[in-house]
Design goal:
Layout (H helix, E strand, L loop, with lengths): L7 E11 L8 E11 L3
Antiparallel strand pairs: 1-2
Length: about 40
């Protein structure tokens, strides 16, 4: 089974940054995500 290594819960954090307007400071947000893979 080529994708069996994905089974389980995966989670992590990161930072997204994007410009609001051309001359302004970019906005930064911390975020977290969690993904669960299972099979029958």
């Amino acid at each position: 089974v080529p994708l069996s290594w994905l089974v389980g819960v995966w989670e992590g954090t990161g930072v997204v940054e994007y410009p609001v307007d051309p001359d302004g400071e970019p906005r930064k947000y911390d975020f977290g995500q969690r993904v669960s893979f299972s099979h029958d």
